[in-house]
Amino acid sequence: MEGNRINNEYDRYLSPLDVWAIAFGCTVGWGAFMMPGSTFLPVAGPLGTVIAMAISVAIMLVIGANFFYLMRHKPGTGGVYAYTKEAFGREHAFLCAWFLSLSYLTILFMNATSLFLVIRMVFGRSLQIGYYHYNIAGNDIFMGEVGASIVALASVGLMFINAKPFLQKFQTVLAILLLAGVVAIAAVCLPRLQLDGGVQSMFGVRGGSPAFAIFSIVLLAPWAFVGFEVISLETAHYDFKIRKTRWIVLTSILLSGLVYIALTLVGVCSTPDGYASWQEYILGLDALDGVQAVPTFFATKSIMGSGGLFLMAIAALAAILTGMIAAYRATTRVLSTMAEDRILSEKFSKTTYSILTIMVVSIAISIFGRNTLECFMELTALGAIIGFGYTSASAWRLAKRSGHRRFVVTGVVGTIISAAFAVVQLIPRLTMLETMSANAFLLLTLWCLLGFLFYMRIVTRSKSAVFSGTSTTSVVMFALLLYSAVMWLGKKLMAAGSVQEIHEMLRLEGGIMLGVIFIALGVMLYIQNLAHRKQNALSAPRATEEAKPDPDDAA
Fold first, then answer.
1. Which of 35, 197, 268, 502 could form a disulfide bond with 201, CB atoms 3.0-4.6 angstroms apart?
2. DSSP character for 6?
3. Into how many domains does the chain fold?
4. Mean pLDDT score of the chain, rounded to an integer?
5. Residues 379, 109: contact at Cβ < 8 Å?
């Protein structure tokens, strides 16, 4: 991967259809099939979800316009990192790339760990065989199911290394299968849709006003639509003019929204025996198992039979694989760009090294099982919000410099929306949904600490004094780390069942929190001290030169 350089015509191998497949395939993953039953219908119901998704699509079109503008302004393989660096400098670019790379990595292994769910829908619990299972955090994890994820991760990774042209065409075929499968299922199932009970039956079952329910679903937009922006990392390889990307971004966002809406409505087209309405069915999902526990799969099987179930499984499998392929691609591009800017080791500028590293890390994480890893999904949304926010702010600044007023407006609107998303994501209970669990705050704390260590490496290895004083990266990282550590401990204490348990948490978790904070504080002070020394070392020769007497004055 050659960063922002465009080498020759042989590197231009992506057609408009290929680029659309990357954007659409990365946006629509397994969540489009699961979230209708677990989140959309309980919170907002059918009509509420339709309204929320329409609003979300409109918001994402604003963000998409900012990406389109920046892709035309700065083509290459740097993506958001390159845009942010030009608009705000290297430190902001590092912050953006650091959190966005976590989103892409999470998309990869969360899609991979969803494979066994598709297998369960079609073949039951055939992979839960023998005694080859273990327990982590109360979750039973079977080696057969983990093995399916490992095989998928290794297969896609090795194909990226050895058969990249085939993999690209394969992704395009999968994206078409995904869209065609959802369209076919919707065409057969949606005519059966019957919603009795008046307007109230069109909204969720958790109570609260319809407006608040819709608002809660809209705030999931960064999670639901993250992925379409991956194509900004590939503009150096387009075999067409970048201006056509406007329609690719538009169609990928619109079609993704329609897929979410279609699958949500399919989920209420049929209910199992014993349930008088879709509301009763959704409220009773926790007591069900197998196909009945996933409304999208059950309704399809109920209306279309085994053939419909097989078609739904093919569409879901295509969604998982397209998401994995695009996430591999995006994570590799981000790592490569940071390596070329000497943030990471130069080894990451090599495709093979990056792919193997991503593969090994993803396989190691997938061993913990999907249920244990649910908290990573919350960080996917946060990384997307940060990426969208920096992109919009960069479009705002660069468009203002160039006098492009329309994109100044979209940049301002996108920045404000992203800031609102960030506030809701980080502050608990502003919506009907829990946006960040205690474990998610712990992961965010550790990711910030790891970011501090990488940033220290940047400053230490830098030969120039580009870092001086209290850096933006240090301040933001430390503030976010401190906040997330306090929120983690606070949530743990709130969940405690007794005073004795609270005392034990304060001793153990409180000690861990203080340890992490003091490590981060020590690293931040070291970075600032080192930056000052580098600045002084650069300034000393200049000061000496300026202090020399002027020969003309002596004369």
1. 197
2. -
3. 2
4. 85
5. no
Residue 399 is which amino acid?
A
Final residue before a domain boundary, out of 373, 391, 414:
373
Domain span holding position 29: 9-373
Burial 337-364 (b: 16+ CB within 10 A, else e): bbbbbebbeeebbebebbbebbbeebbe
* pLDDT tens for each residue of 272-315: 888 888 889 998 888 888 888 899 999 999 999 999 999 999 99
In a domain, 485, yes or no: yes
- 355 and 465 belong to one structural domain: no
Nearest to 181 by CA among 21, 308, 49, 362: 308
Give the residues across from 135 on adjacent strands. Answer: 140
Output the CA–CA distances (angstroms, integers) from residue 210 to 41, 149, 224, in the order listed: 12, 39, 20
Question: Using alpha carbons only, what angle is made at residue 152 by residues 23 and 322, rounded to the nearest 5 degrees?
Answer: 10
Tell me which long-range contacts 458-466 makes (C-beta under 8 A, separation of at least 24). 458/94, 458/342, 458/343, 459/527, 459/530, 459/531, 459/534, 460/530, 461/342, 462/342, 462/534, 464/534, 464/538, 465/531, 465/534, 465/535, 465/537, 465/538, 466/90
Tokens of 450: 């790891």
**Is 517 among the domain residues?**
yes
pTM over 0.70: yes
CATH number, domain with residue 18: 1.20.1740.10
Instruction: Identify whether residues 481 and 363 lie together within a single domain.
Output: no
Q: What are phi and psi of 14, to 5 degrees?
A: -100, 120
Domain end (from 373, 399, 422): 373
Which pLDDT tens digit goes with each residue over 334-382? Answer: 888 888 877 777 888 888 899 999 999 999 888 887 777 777 888 888 9
Largest Cα span, the chain: 106
pLDDT tier at 540 (50, 70, 90 boundaries)? low
